[in-house]
Design goal:
Elements: E1 4-6, H1 10-20, H2 26-44, E2 50-56, E3 61-67, E4 73-78, H3 81-91, E5 96-104, E6 111-117, E7 126-130, E8 133-134, H4 138-149, E9 154-158, E10 161-162, H5 164-173, E11 179-181, E12 183-184, E13 187-188, E14 194-195, H6 201-206
Parallel strand pairs: 1-11, 4-5, 4-7, 7-9, 8-10, 9-11, 10-12
Antiparallel strand pairs: 2-3, 5-6, 13-14
The protein binds 1-O-pyrophosphono-5-O-phosphono-alpha-D-ribofuranose and uracil.
């Protein structure tokens, strides 16, 4: 599918299988999500532009590669986005962070916003939106709508699992925003859950239910 990258690295797929297993503990789930986020972050940042900076090694002066442009923004869709955010910040500690508070109304499956805080200069930065689940895509579409309204023009969306229906809806709403995911699962069920999926990501991360 155009604009969609499935990260099929064996380590990602192995960890994802353990996360899907309903016997995996809350602590294990959280640890795996952090580990997997490092690998996903590696893929979503693979083509970042480089410039050079003159440095002196102990042996000679060189023009060495360094990231070009302003610091990245990671936009976490609360709550579950924070599980990806933590690991990504391990890899890119200087990134700026936006928080988009959204929850899915269980009856309507519409996204309800309850919080938003982002750096003011979104327009000049690459914004990577992170949320483990892309189900109906209502939350992802609302998060990107909001970030665009606040000035973001260069965005990517990173998740762990996606439903085919969600990917299609998201790409139709935001064709300029590439999607990165570890898996496109089979379908959405009648309650809007990804099947086979891993259940409710927020509940599994935080032990709520
Ligand atoms: C989950 C998930 C996404 C959303 C995906 O969040 O983290 O944000 O559902 O579903 P959608 O594509 O159908 O919108 P949830 O609303 O359960 O909130 P939580 O992270 O606070 O648990
Ligand atoms: N949100 C989740 O956490 N899991 C799903 O399967 C769908 C939406």
């Amino acid at each position: 599918m155009q604009g969609v990258t499935v990260v099929d690295h064996p380590l990602v797929q192995h960890k994802l299988t353990i996360m899907r297993d309903k016997e995996t503990s809350t602590a294990g789930f959280r640890r795996l999500l952090r580990e997997i986020s490092l690998l996903l972050c590696y893929e979503v940042t693979r083509d970042l532009e480089l410039t050079t900076r003159r440095i002196e090694t102990p042996l000679q002066t060189i023009d060495a590669p360094t990231l070009e442009g302003k610091k990245l923004v990671f936009a976490s869709v609360l709550r579950a986005g924070n599980g990806l955010l933590d690991g990504m910040l391990d890899l890119v500690p200087a990134a700026r962070v936006a928080h988009v508070g959204l929850y899915r109304d269980h009856e309507t499956l519409q996204a309800v916003e309850y919080f938003f805080k982002a750096p003011s200069d979104l327009a000049n930065r690459l914004v990577i939106v992170v949320d483990p689940m892309l189900a109906t895509a209502n939350s992802a579409i609302a998060a990107v709508d909001k970030l665009k309204e606040k000035g973001a023009t260069n965005l990517r969306f990173l998740c762990l699992l996606a439903a085919p229906e969600g990917v299609e809806r998201f790409r139709a709403a935001h064709p300029d925003v590439p999607v990165f995911t570890a898996s496109i699962d089979e379908k959405l069920n009648e309650k809007g859950y990804i099947v086979p999926g891993l259940g409710d990501a927020g509940d599994r991360m935080y032990g709520t239910k």
